[in-house]
């Protein structure tokens, strides 16, 4: 009998049809994939469904340069306007305080009232209609300030709020001016009525400028995503490679499969190997990211050395934390770490949609999710001159906290597994490494 006939008649050989016909094979992957798809759909779409409806306490500055009474009255009218949902947090600031707030990303926009605001308004009711054209009476103009470093959507939401507040306040100021004019016994002329219908005009300008090659304030988010993914994916690659080298998992490359004999090493020592490798490789991956983005793509990345150091530390903490999850949950740890570092982290990062425009669930996630912390530090370095109060200080603190938690949990869990005798393979299959 030939070898081919022997193989075909081997009673131990089974077919795909035999396996696919067994329902237990389908249960676990079907339930897991369905659950993951369902939860991912909820998480990703829930955060972007209605930013304006979810908006709470959007920080916007009010700056008054006016030397007359109308500037203060206008600012107070905007700040005290009815806001039942507390959608906006109006912050009346001096020019110096407002500049500091813009330069640190603490406000997303602002309304700047000029010095001649009161005099321009008074000129409308003081100038006769026949002299209006000659004297060049025009709408007083306030400046709507944006903060591109806070993100394009944050600036857009702030501008929309400012325009709405300006429209309402302008009409109120116009009505007050009409009443003031009539109190003198004079009747508004047609030209005055036209100006008083909506007396305040606006122009838009950035309150804090960022570089041209910054993706309208989105490069910080994409860099953060790269730092997190390099740490997360690197941890999975390192974990699989180490397991294959130690003989606890097969090594497959195309049609070639290799399975080493398991070596005598416990879970704690295995975790040490994986964590050290993840931390070391973070220097390589971060260098590659900086090389690609700063040298090849030529993004505007000031404080490049500081950004590289921050990227190395952020990727290392993510990698070490991912190794802890993999050590604790085994194969299921890949799904869990994917949810923690990516699925739940992206919508709560506050980069594409500001935290103030997210539902409350995502604001809670932002307290500890890594992309929020790393994103705040990255944004501070490249948009806000690496200021500590722009999010960099909090980022370093949270990286330290995350590292401490990962180390304590990781070694605590693996030592517990080792003491309880939870071996990864049967002890009879373990051999000591060759000398």
TrEMBL record:
InterPro entries linked to this entry: DUF3533, T7SS_ABC-Transporter
Membrane topology: Multi-pass membrane protein
Compartment(s) of residence: Cell membrane
Sequence ranges assigned to domain DUF3533 in this UniProt record: 33-400
Transmembrane segments: 26-49, 216-238, 271-295, 307-329, 335-355, 396-417
Gene3D superfamilies with a match to the protein in the record: abc type-2 transporter like domain (3.40.1710.10)
Pfam families, sorted: DUF3533
GO-annotated cellular components: plasma membrane
Alphabetically ordered keywords of this record: Cell membrane, Membrane, Transmembrane, Transmembrane helix
Highest rank taxon of the organism: Bacteria
Protein name: DUF3533 domain-containing protein
């Amino acid at each position: 009998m030939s070898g081919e006939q022997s193989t075909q008649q081997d009673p131990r050989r089974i077919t795909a049809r035999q396996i696919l016909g067994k329902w237990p094979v389908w249960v676990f992957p079907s339930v897991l994939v369905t659950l993951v798809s369902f939860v991912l759909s909820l998480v990703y779409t829930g955060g972007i469904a209605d930013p304006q409806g979810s908006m709470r306490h959007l920080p916007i500055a009010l700056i008054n340069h006016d030397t007359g009474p109308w500037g203060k009255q206008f600012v107070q009218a905007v700040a005290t306007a009815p806001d039942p949902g507390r959608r906006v947090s109006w912050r009346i600031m001096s020019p110096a305080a407002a500049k500091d707030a813009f330069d640190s990303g603490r406000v997303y926009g602002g309304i700047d009232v000029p010095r001649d605001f009161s005099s321009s308004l008074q000129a409308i009711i003081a100038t006769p209609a026949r002299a209006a054209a000659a004297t060049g009476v025009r709408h007083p103009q306030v400046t709507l300030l944006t903060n591109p470093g806070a993100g394009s959507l944050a600036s857009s939401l702030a501008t929309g709020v400012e325009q709405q507040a300006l429209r309402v306040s302008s009409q109120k100021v116009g009505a007050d001016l009409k009443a003031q004019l009539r109190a003198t016994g004079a009747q508004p002329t047609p030209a005055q009525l036209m100006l008083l219908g909506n007396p305040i005009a606006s122009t838009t300008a950035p309150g804090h400028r960022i570089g041209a090659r910054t993706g309208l304030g989105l490069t910080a988010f994409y860099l953060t995503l790269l730092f997190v993914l390099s740490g997360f994916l690197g941890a999975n690659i390192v974990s699989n490679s180490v397991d294959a080298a130690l003989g606890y998992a097969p090594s497959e490359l195309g049609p070639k499969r290799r399975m080493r004999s398991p070596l005598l090493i416990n879970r704690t020592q295995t975790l040490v190997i994986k964590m050290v490798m993840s931390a070391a490789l973070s220097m390589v991956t971060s260098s590659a990211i900086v090389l690609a983005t700063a040298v090849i793509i030529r993004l505007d990345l000031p404080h490049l050395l500081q950004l590289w150091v921050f990227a190395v530390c952020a990727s290392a903490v993510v990698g070490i934390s991912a190794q802890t999850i993999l050590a604790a949950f085994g194969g299921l740890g890949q799904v869990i770490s994917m949810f923690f570092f990516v699925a739940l982290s992206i919508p709560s990062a506050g980069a594409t949609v500001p935290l103030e425009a997210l539902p409350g669930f995502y604001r809670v996630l932002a307290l500890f999710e890594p992309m929020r912390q790393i994103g705040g530090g990255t944004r501070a370095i490249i948009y806000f001159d690496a200021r500590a109060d722009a999010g960099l200080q909090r980022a370093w603190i949270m990286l330290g906290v995350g590292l401490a938690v990962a180390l304590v949990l990781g070694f605590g869990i693996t030592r517990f597994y080792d003491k309880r005798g939870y071996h990864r393979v049967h002890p009879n299959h373990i051999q000591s490494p060759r000398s």
